Amino acid sequence: ISMVAALCMGFVFGWALEKGRVFEPLAIRKQFLFQAWIMLKMFLAAISSSGLCLGIIYKAAPASFSVIRTRFTDCVQRGIFTGGVAGGLILGIGMAIAGACPGMVLAQVGANVHNSVFTLLGAVLGALFYGLIYTKIKGAIVAGPKFSKTYLSDYHESSSTDWYVVLVAALVIACTAVITALEVVVDWRSEAPPNSAGCAVFGCTAWPPAVAGVLIGILQVPCAIVIGDTIGGSTSYVTMASSVLVFVPECRRA
Predict the structure, then answer these.
(1) Would you say 226 and 45 are in contact if contact means Cβ atoms under 8 Å apart?
(2) In whole angstroms, how large is the CA radius of gyration of the chain?
(3) Cα(221)–Cα(230) distance, integer angstroms
(4) Is the separation of the CB atoms in 22 and 191 below 8 Å?
(5) Over the range 43-55, which residues count as b (16 or more CB within 10 Å of their CB) and which as e?
(6) CA atoms lying within 13 Å on the CB side of residue 117
(7) Rounded to an integer, what distance in angstroms lies between the CA atom of residue 25 and that of residue 98?
(8) What was the pLDDT predicted at 2?
(9) pLDDT value at position 243?
């Protein structure tokens, strides 16, 4: 069931990226230069709907929420600067150069974007290289200050206010406000390929990036309930790399 759910979610994920036109390398590079806003609108919409869906799971399926929260917060064991800041910087540089990210490159390959196969190959090789040197850099990754594993539910026990619900509501309102402001300043139609006159919803070349982002955010529900994890593309490369590196003695011992 998990495999079928993952395949279905992957299809919807890639389809939403394609309809939102965020997969296009030029759109990604222009976002880094603040010359286009499709990518930011879609990401904020995905964050907003993800937060809302996780809030619903938090209330309706607390056991599933506890599982995904534990898996997600394992990342806080990495250093804030050595793992978070340095990793984000490397990812950002790679996105600006390649015009892709771990999730979008798969949609690019499906849409036959020029040179996308080489970008995908680079991502896989990068994951393999990381796996090979992990034991040597592990100490550096976890060095320095770290975020503590503190949950808002810890405060809820001593307060009548459910702070997680408050945070989700604030997040949704803030993201919606920014998306609305950006849309007023820069209409998404001015940045996306034109749709054919009278096109049906599924036949249109481009959708509003916020709509595509909401669709991606909703995928958090089947991902959390069926698979017990949150949406993310980078882990797939680690999984592929580990399938190969398991035959390397040094990596197997790690």
Answers:
(1) no
(2) 20
(3) 9
(4) no
(5) bbbbbbbbbbbbb
(6) 2
(7) 7
(8) 83
(9) 79
What DSSP assignment string belongs to 23-56? TSHHHHHHHHTTS--HHHHHHHHHHHHHHHHHHH
Residue 166 Cα distances to 36, 119, 162, angstroms: 31, 40, 7
Q: Which helix (H) or strand (E) holds 62?
A: helix 62-73
Residue 147 is encoded by which pair of tokens? 């975020």
Cβ(91)–Cβ(201) below 8 Å: no
**Helix, strand, coil percent values for the chain (each to nearest 5):** 75, 0, 25
d(CA 164, CA 48): 14
Mean pLDDT by 10 residues, the chain (254 residues): 88 92 93 94 96 93 89 75 86 92 89 92 90 85 79 69 88 96 95 88 92 95 90 78 75 60
Q: What pLDDT is stored for residue 158 in this prediction?
A: 64
What single DSSP character describes residue 231?
Answer: -
User: Distance (Å, rounded) from C-alpha 9 to C-alpha 3?
Assistant: 10
pTM of this structure = 0.87
Predicted pLDDT at 76: 67
Residue 77: DSSP 8-state: G
Report which of 6, 3, 38, 5 is spatially closest to residue 23, judged by C-alpha positions: 38
Contacts of 236 (CB under 8 A, 6+ apart): 102
Looking up tokens 């999730």 gives 103
Type and span of the H or E element at 182: helix 163-185
Question: What is the secondary structure of 165-178 as a DSSP string?
Answer: HHHHHHHHHHHHHH
The DSSP 8-state label assigned to residue 112 in this structure reads T
